[in-house]
UniProtKB/TrEMBL annotation:
Coiled coil: none annotated. InterPro entries: CheY-like_superfamily (IPR011006), Sig_transdc_resp-reg_receiver (IPR001789), TCS_response_regulator (IPR052893). GO terms for biological process: phosphorelay signal transduction system. Residues 9-134 form the Response regulatory domain. The modification 4-aspartylphosphate is found at D67. It comes from the Bacteria. This is Two-component system response regulator.
Length: 153
């Protein structure tokens, strides 16, 4: 991770509190400094990403973990909106869902998801996968630099 990004900002878009807790646990158990932000559906994610309403001072995420099946605005709709928005499309967006459907995989990549990962059913495997995501985006991948005003280059 670049020295200009001392903290990995992660937006978790997930309606299942149990899955959110597992992601939080996997991110907490490591040396990568990170802050997880959570919203329960795509509608709230858009408000967060656009820094509107209660999220007026929200940071720009370095990474989005996105579930597909959620109420109101689902992950499929949100992914399309993120990747069509010039201000948001550079944020790496990982579809992290229970679906293993070939059509979901294809449509997610067609909408420019950066990765599609089916959530493992086994707790140990689930944690391992989240740790791998965290390590890749926290150590290996070069991410857009975030400025103090929250914009990226």
């Amino acid at each position: 991770m670049s020295a200009s990004l001392p903290l990995l900002q992660v937006l978790v878009v997930e309606d299942d509190p149990g899955d959110v807790a597992l992601v939080e646990s996997a991110f907490a158990e490591h040396s990568i400094s990170s802050t997880l932000h959570h919203v329960a559906d795509g509608a709230d994610a858009l408000v967060f990403l656009r820094r509107e309403g209660p999220y007026g001072d929200a940071p720009r995420p370095d990474l989005i973990l996105l579930d597909l099946n959620m109420p109101r605005v689902d992950g499929r709709q949100l992914l399309q909106q993120i990747k069509m928005d010039d201000d948001l499309k550079s944020i790496p967006t990982i579809v992290f869902t229970t679906s293993a459907s070939a059509s979901d995989v294809l449509s997610s990549y067609a909408a420019h998801a950066n990765a599609f990962i089916t959530k493992p059913m086994n707790l140990d495997d689930y944690e391992r996968v989240v740790i791998e995501i965290r390590n890749f985006y926290g150590h290996t991948a070069a991410l857009p630099r975030r400025h103090s005003d929250g914009t990226a280059t």
